[in-house]
Amino acid sequence: MTALDKLVAVVTGAASGIGRAVAERFAEEGACVVAVDRAREVLDARPRGAADALLSDVTDPGQVAAVADHVERELGRWDVLVNAAGAVVFGRAGETTEEDWELAFDVNARGTWLMCRAALAAMVSRRSGAIVNVASGAGVRPIEGLAAYSASKAAVISLTRSIAIEYGADGIRANCICPGMVDTPMNRAALRRRGVPPDSDELFATYAIKRIGRVEEIAAAALFLASPEASFVTGATLAVDAGRTLH
Question: Which member of 149, 151, 182, 237 is catalytic?
Fold first, then answer.
């Protein structure tokens, strides 16, 4: 048997980056993967091995409800949720616009919560389930010039802990991954916006391992937390960041 044999796993942000890597790794490990994203690439170039792909915006309660209805109707159960959808905005706290603040919290915090709420409704009835939320090392140790992003990812960490406390007795585990610098389309765009070359030494000044991370490394962490191998792990915040958040 593979690690996620016959489990139904919904992965958001699955069109690219970390979400896509998670969807493909989970499929390799036997999961029936439902790939979700608001970008059409999730349909046009479905993650390898995914059983289904849905176009959906996690910030829209109606679209999230439609995802839950589809999963229950077509697959009959919902065992795992990985929230990898995210958005990054720039600006120091005193210079961030209201629109940027709302965008960061709408996608990163509210979207994660809406998906968790939908999954919990399905998981509680079966008294089993695993939720893995992808936050950021910035949610633990904020990055200068990313105030709204850092705050929204800290909210994801706190939400994850709340779910762990509130639903452990229902057989549901909730854990959080905090990636460091990872080679994704969103990160490459962020570096261009900041005017920082991807091979700049200053990028890794606070990293114990002096290189950029790979999406496959984050997917491996998500696999562990979603699998029965982590059956005694809940409420954890796992830094996969080459040591950046060490104090």
Answer: 149
The residues near 42 (Cβ < 8 Å, ≥ 6 apart) are 14, 15, 35, 36, 53, 54, 55
Please determine, for residue 188, whether its predicted confidence score (pLDDT) is greater than 90: no
**Whether residue 167 lies in the annotated active site:** no
- Report pLDDT for 194: 73
Average pLDDT over residues 123-129: 97
Two structure tokens written together for 226: 């979603």
Q: Which CATH number is 8-181+214-240 given?
A: 3.40.50.720
- C-alpha to C-alpha distances, 144 to 94, 147, 187, 195, 244, nearest whole angstrom: 12, 7, 15, 14, 14
Query: Which of 208, 235, 177 has its CA nearest to residue 11?
Result: 177
Cα gap 96→45, rounded to integer Å: 35
Q: Which pLDDT band, with edges at 50, 70 and 90, does 2 fall under? A: confident
Q: Which two tokens stand for residue 119?
A: 């999954």
Does the pTM exceed 0.70? yes
Alpha carbon of residue 204 to chain centroid: 23
Tokens at residue 168, please? Answer: 């452990």
Look up residue 46 and give its DSSP letter: P
In the chain, where the domains are located: 8-181+214-240
On the question of pLDDT at 195 being above 80, the answer is no
Any idea which residue has 């996608």 for tokens? Answer: 107
Calculate mean pLDDT across residues 17-28.
98
